[in-house]
Amino acid sequence: MKKFIYIFIIVFAIIVILLIANGLYCNQNIKVTNYTIKNSKSNVKLRFAIISDLHNKQFGENNSELIKLVKKQRPDFIAVCGDMIVRGNTDTSVMKSVLSQLKDIAPTYCCLGNHERDMTDQIDFAAEINPTGSVLLDNTSLIFTKDGKNILIGGLSDFPYYDEFAPEYNTPDRYFWDKFKAQAKENFAVLLHHQPEYIADYAADSGIDIITCGHTHGGQIQIPFVGGLITPNQGLFPKYDIGEYDFGNTKMIICSGLGNNTIIPRINNQIEFCVVDID
């Protein structure tokens, strides 16, 4: 009996040590995840990076390690999908430092995440972001051009069909969403949005080619053959945690992001930013 107890303690200790080591590695070492999206709408070909959920985290002095890694990917533009700050903290210096460096790599476009939205009564994000040289797309869009070819890029800052807005859904988000969908029928379109769990239900008939999201932190703990353990809003075993989701002619890419804002550590779920090649 004592021998069995000793073996159990040793095995348990080994498992704990391995989990701690995995957690430390996953939370500190950035992975670059690549996706290729076929373009059947036009002959636009380009590469862009997706960054999300930094939550004021630092990778080297002034995030030099992150910037170096992004620069190495040679993106044509950079999509920043929200939660660069931490709710309750009005210090935007990390966000502004990163954005000012990213725009030196490639044109950088941002949408708001839930942490930013919860701080709009204390922080003017347009006044904070746009002077960095990056562009805040807060229910707005623009045309990005490469080699004479156009791509429509927009930022939807909040889900337009919350029950609290029913039945009229009379919000700036809804009007932008409707306008962007109409524009997407004539243009290859990329929409930046933070939260995937609601917009997924409306993606299939949107005409939007790529929707980029963050928010989920990859499910915090990735369980082999099961997926993510928990995400905000979706709860346990979320349907949308990380990766590429196919809704007919629309692809949704969820980036697990770079930071953390919970006591639950990332395990088997490495921090990341994503690179998308439109071919």
Ends distance: 63 Å
Q: State the helicity in percent bands.
A: 25-40%
Q: Which structural class do you get from the secondary structure elements?
A: alpha/beta
The coarse silhouette is globular
Going across the major beta sheet, what is the strand order? 1-16-2-3-4-5
Count of distinct strands: 16
How is the topology of this model organized?
Layout lengths: L1 H27 L2 E7 L8 E6 L12 H9 L4 E4 L12 H13 L2 E3 L3 H4 L7 H5 L5 E2 L3 E7 L2 E8 L15 H13 L4 E5 L2 H8 L6 E4 L8 E2 L3 E2 L1 E2 L3 E2 L6 E5 L2 E5 L17 E7 L1
Parallel strand pairs: 1-16, 2-3, 3-4, 4-5, 7-8, 8-9, 9-15
Antiparallel strand pairs: 2-16, 6-7, 10-11, 12-13, 14-15
Describe the structure.
This protein is an alpha/beta fold. It contains seven helices and 16 strands. The strands form four sheets. Strands 1-16-2-3-4-5 form a six-stranded mixed sheet. A six-stranded mixed sheet has the order 6-7-8-9-15-14, covered by helices on one side. The longest helix is centred in the N-terminal third of the chain and has 27 residues. It starts with a helix and ends with a strand. 42% of the residues are buried.
In short:
This protein has helices at 2-28, 64-72, 93-105, 114-117, 125-129, 172-184, 196-203; strands at residues 31-37, 46-51, 77-80, 108-110, 135-136, 140-146, 149-156, 189-193, 210-213, 222-223, 227-228, 230-231, 235-236, 243-247, 250-254, 272-278. The protein has 279 residues and is of the alpha/beta class. The protein is globular.
